[in-house]
Amino acid sequence: MLDPSDRVLAGLLLAPAAILLSAIIVYPVLRLFYTSLFNLSLTSGLPGEFVGIENYRLMLEDPVFWETTWNTVLITLITVPGALVVGMGLALLANLPFRRRWPVRLSLLIPWALPLSFAGLIFAWFFHSEYGVVNDVLARFGIDGVIWFNSPNLAFAAICLTIIWKTSSFMALIILAGLQTIPRSLYEAADVDGAGRIRQFVEITLPLLKPAIVVALIFRTITALQTFDIPYMMTGGGPGTSTATLAMYIHQNTVSFLDLGYGAALAVVMFVLSIGVTAIYLRILRAREWAT
């Protein structure tokens, strides 16, 4: 049992952090939810009118909301596992006993350090129908060039490939950090027992990497649900709204249309999705910890 004086001291030490978190996290979230309950459009010139859950009711009847939400979920379902697989391969490669490993590990930082909007511009040029690198490579193999951004499916595929390239290095860095914590003696003992590389990976590497993988998945899933820069720079959400994401729709309503009430309601939905996914990951991790 803690002494009452210890509890007071603990409260005093934690108070600054609690106040800071309330100022930068709790208050903005509460303010966002409060704004979503108003009909607040800056273009109307009228004061905000309290409408309760009317913005959320309108959202359920908004086909663009459902399309952009589905696009966001689909990007998440494609790019998160894709980045995990590619990142795992890159981490295992960077963890090999190279004589000089720093160039390999340094190369992992390049895609991660590149700004998202810049990555979108680069790959928009790569997939350009007239002078893009991808069509040039296809032409060298005798394949006709493709107008990537005129087809919803091709444009969506190009965006997903770009996101996987950009985010796989982030996954690799986290997984590489997890690989560094695995004792080498475990692999030496497995070699003595005659276990092959695949068996060592399945029975030693993967189980001990679970915490690092879950952390990587949490961060990557949250950022995937908030995808904005890359599709905005590559397609602008087109053709039509076939590649628009929920974050882009929030930006359109708040910045372009100045409809702060409806934009806040959309942002609340994104926040709830992010919190829900994080809770699911943590629940899975806790269940596995209890199982072991």
How does this model look, in words?
The protein has a two-stranded antiparallel ribbon with strand order 1-2. Helix 9 runs antiparallel to helix 12. The model has no long low-confidence stretch (mean pLDDT 88). The protein is an all-alpha fold and 292 residues long. The chain is flat, with a radius of gyration of 24 Å.
Structural class: mainly alpha
Provide the low-confidence segments as ranges: none
Report the total helices.
12
| Rg of Cα set | 24 Å
What is the overall silhouette? flat
Short account of what is shown:
The chain contains 12 helices and 2 strands, in the order H-E-E-H-H-H-H-H-H-H-H-H-H-H. The protein has 292 residues and is mainly alpha-helical. The two termini are 29 Å apart.
Keywords summarizing the entry:
292 residues; mainly alpha; two-stranded antiparallel sheet; 12 helices; 75% helix; flat
Give the helices and strands, then pairings.
Blueprint: H1 4-35, E1 38-39, E2 49-50, H2 54-60, H3 63-94, H4 102-113, H5 116-126, H6 133-140, H7 152-180, H8 184-192, H9 197-225, H10 229-234, H11 246-256, H12 260-291
Antiparallel strand pairs: 1-2
